[in-house]
């Protein structure tokens, strides 16, 4: 790799983060003496090329080998102006260090483009050349759409020496330890490079099964809450009916206590997780077919070169891939089935919500009818009171002038039999009119003040500006509407 490679690296400079010590793994299966097999795992400084830990690998002494460099997620936060990648996508090395690794391990620069695309992908580059003059097979795989087990791998395979060299980026320390343990347990399979891919996908298969099982349990829990749990066995159905009757002898429970917001939120979450499960299954199934195809191709190539020890390895990997393929297919079908089951529950919830709304509307109508009857009775009582007041007012109108006249002229202000020299009208008559006017003004003023205060109290109690409209509130569950 020369100046052209450096120019390509310049286009991806924002992918490189702060440098850090890298972890390495080297596994060598010797040709004759298994006691001399190598399994080393540790840290090394990529900047010191002279201190790289790799041992010499010869086809005469080594039956199969695997070299892995792990790069963990970068923890240093970066602003959006620095890079559009999250911390887990940055390589913890410099451009020159990556160039050295790519040159020594025969890795493609297009690995950086795969990182930038941030998609789940598998690429079989097939044949390329390197400075070692051996035919090299190059492959890349990436899983970047999950929170855990995010990995990006570039891999080269020396078909002559049976040596696999890989750069694995994105795994955490715990995930690196788990992968290293799995490699140690399956070290007899390192003769074919897709073994590393199969181990990485194995975690995705297990995660998919776990997610499907969790979704299934959540759906069953929701079905039991809504009372729509399906039981297929007739004896179980009978037992379930008896238990329901013992628990609710007066009939099935109403759905007053159901939290529909919580249920719809859970069902939406379940549907999203199942959709993701379908995605992971559909995107990984073709990869397993590609792994088998590559293994068959490498088996034919090495068999043509006189190496016949890969048949057993290829058979084991094919069996392992077939198991994962079957598991992914089963998980895919299960996710589709559970999606339909969750959709049925969503429709059920919507139906229950509609029933609840109808019940509330009916009870509101009943309350309004009761209020109307009360208003009707009040109106009848008011009519009777108005009629009575009309009679009283009529009687008062008839008798008040006569009463006032009789009372007024019976006072001492008038003397209808005056003596000589006396006036018929008293000189104090003005006092009568003065007191009458003052009392009338005081009474009318008091009436106005009391009326206004009562009117404001009515407005405050009704909570309206004009005192004409009331405020009616309804509970969220099945219950009696309340008028505030």
Automatic annotation (TrEMBL):
Gene3D superfamilies: Magnesium transport protein CorA, transmembrane region
Keyword Transmembrane helix: yes
Residue spans crossing the bilayer: 386-409, 429-450
Keyword set, alphabetical order: Membrane, Transmembrane, Transmembrane helix
Protein name: Uncharacterized protein
Originating species: Cadophora malorum
